[in-house]
Amino acid sequence: MLTHDAALEWIARWDRQQEGYLPDREERFTALIDAVEAMGRPDPLVIDLGCGPGSLSARLLERLPGATVISVDADPLLLGLGRAAYPHLRFVSLDLRTPGWTGALGLDRPADAAVSTTALHWISGPELSKMYAELATVLRPGGLLLNGDHLETDDTTPAIARLERAVHDRETARRFGDRRPEDWRRWWESVAADPAFAELHAARTTAGADHHGSESPLLSEHVGALLDAGFTEVGTLWQRGHNRLLCAVRA
């Protein structure tokens, strides 16, 4: 059985392996939560899209304890890990690619913000457009989408795109040198080998929750889909290399 303390240890290990790909991860979290806080409500309603084990959701509630955070993911293992570690969070098992997903959120008012970090690039272009369009229906006017991710610009500014990746690579080398943290594959292999995760791992395999590459890596793809969905302003709030925080304002 997965205990609370063991879950916290596994999430700390998750955070370290994520930082191996995102040395500025905590800075991006901070910028994202700053933006939610700047909206001016002490009790914002926030949807965390592709929440994983709840790393962002937990940080949001630490800063804004009056917030209501609904943490959404389709991966049974990561949801189980988050529930064991953060019993005060509300986790919802939903696939954002399935039309009608917003109806299962149980919202009692329009959301003030939807947030996401390193998740939405797994959704393919056509499904991304539908997801953003449905999301717009549950955000209040002036509500925000805040999406932190590696978003590329090769299709519009290829020389700058190469420089963005170079900036990211140099920061990673400065931060870690030859002592890179555990990588994604090793983390998942270790989880699969832990008997405490046997049931959750089986559920994950049955659900087909494995990721197999980036489906929508281009910044232009996200910007275009958001504008088509009715968001009036879309721009970058924070950036380091190709690691950026994309913000979109609901009409």
Automatic annotation (TrEMBL):
<feature type="domain" description="Methyltransferase">
    <location>
        <begin position="46"/>
        <end position="143"/>
    </location>
</feature>
<protein>
    <submittedName>
        <fullName>Methyltransferase</fullName>
    </submittedName>
</protein>
<dbReference type="InterPro" id="IPR041698">
    <property type="entry name" value="Methyltransf_25"/>
</dbReference>
<dbReference type="GO" id="GO:0008168">
    <property type="term" value="F:methyltransferase activity"/>
</dbReference>
<keyword id="KW-0489">Methyltransferase</keyword>
<dbReference type="Pfam" id="PF13649">
    <property type="entry name" value="Methyltransf_25"/>
</dbReference>
<keyword id="KW-0808">Transferase</keyword>
<dbReference type="GO" id="GO:0032259">
    <property type="term" value="P:methylation"/>
</dbReference>
<dbReference type="InterPro" id="IPR029063">
    <property type="entry name" value="SAM-dependent_MTases_sf"/>
</dbReference>
